[in-house]
Design a protein that fits this description.
The chain is an alpha/beta fold. The chain folds into two domains: 147 residues, Aspartate Aminotransferase, domain 1, CATH 3.90.1150; 223 residues, 3-Layer(aba) Sandwich (Aspartate Aminotransferase, domain 2). A seven-stranded mixed β-sheet has the order 2-8-7-6-5-3-4, with helices on both faces. The protein has a three-stranded antiparallel β-sheet with strand order 9-12-11. It has a two-stranded parallel sheet with strand order 1-10. It catalyses: L-aspartate + 2-oxoglutarate = oxaloacetate + L-glutamate. Its EC number is 2.6.1.-. Belongs to the class-I pyridoxal-phosphate-dependent aminotransferase family.
Amino acid sequence: MAFLSDTLARVKPSPTIAVTTKAQQLKAEGKDVIGLGAGEPDFDTPQNIKDAAKRAIDAGKTKYTAVDGIPELKAAICRKFERENGLKYTPSQITVGTGGKQILYNALMATCNPGDEVIIPAPYWVSYPDMVLLAGGTPVTVECGIETDFKLTPEKLEAAITPKTKWFIFNSPSNPTGAGYTAAELKALTDVLMRHPHVWIMSDDMYEHLVFDDFKFATPAEVEPGLFDRTLTCNGVSKAYAMTGWRIGYAGGPVQLIKAMGTIQSQSTSNPCSVSQYAAVEALDGPQGFLTDNKALFQRRRDLVVSMLNQASGITCPRPEGAFYVYPDISGCIGKTSAGGTVINDDEAFAAALLEETGVAVVFGAAFGVSPNFRVSYATSDAALEEACRRIQSFCAGLT
């Protein structure tokens, strides 16, 4: 009898975490490494949010809470959804989990049966397919290339839907590409979904507040109210509020689904950290002005990275609408040999040689389902980004 579960063979560790861990190890060994793999802001949690956490500790709010969130946070989330997205939820339609990842996982675990299909546009966040597999479902990836700015078309969505489709996972702005769907582009997708009432929508809005230029964020249930009763609108405080380590995610959806997700959570983690929940109340209800400042900072970094990477031989880097990632195409580098002697057969070889020869850590595109590309997280200092891009330019110039 095997000791490890057969389920484990269906999934793999997160490549983004692996790259970040590798970069940290090399730094600890004294190597000159610039890590562009981590998907988290490089600035601190705002002081008012930290102060709210301290008040919660001092007030003794350190006990177990309701499994899927304190009433104060659920109320704050309801206010956020109505204020920013025009979506009216009651507290019974809200769930709070230990990070956005748990929210998505709970929903899949609560709904997927063997044979159920989940449509996932690629490039995708690395965890989507593996979470579907863990839940017993079948991920159906739909490749969206650079020719459509990495966005899913209505025609491709229509073609992917079958009688077995349970969920459609939607992420805008996207990790890993930063691509954002306009309200019109999203409406074209929701029109397709309205014709298939058995398909549920899981909208991952984690990068909602990180959009640039004149781009306007929109979410499916807002664009098409007819989908409200079969949409799980997911979000969290990690990215916009620089609270990645606090581990608070949330979602709004139909009561039946929310209750089922709570059942899963009650037998896994139980409640999210009590102190983090009170901090999240302040994040959602408190001053929001710093979001504008952070957007300006990220937009400047985006423009810097896009400009410098497009000057690298063999690289084409689209200019994304949001998040803090770019997803350059390296078709012009494939088949060449690096100065260190590595044959660049694919984007994994490119990323490995780049790290070995220049100390720049990026995540290879195959991890996200579309190649040949790599992902850069520009959630780091301007100086580090400039130096990293110079090294990438030099590396590409040395390919023969």
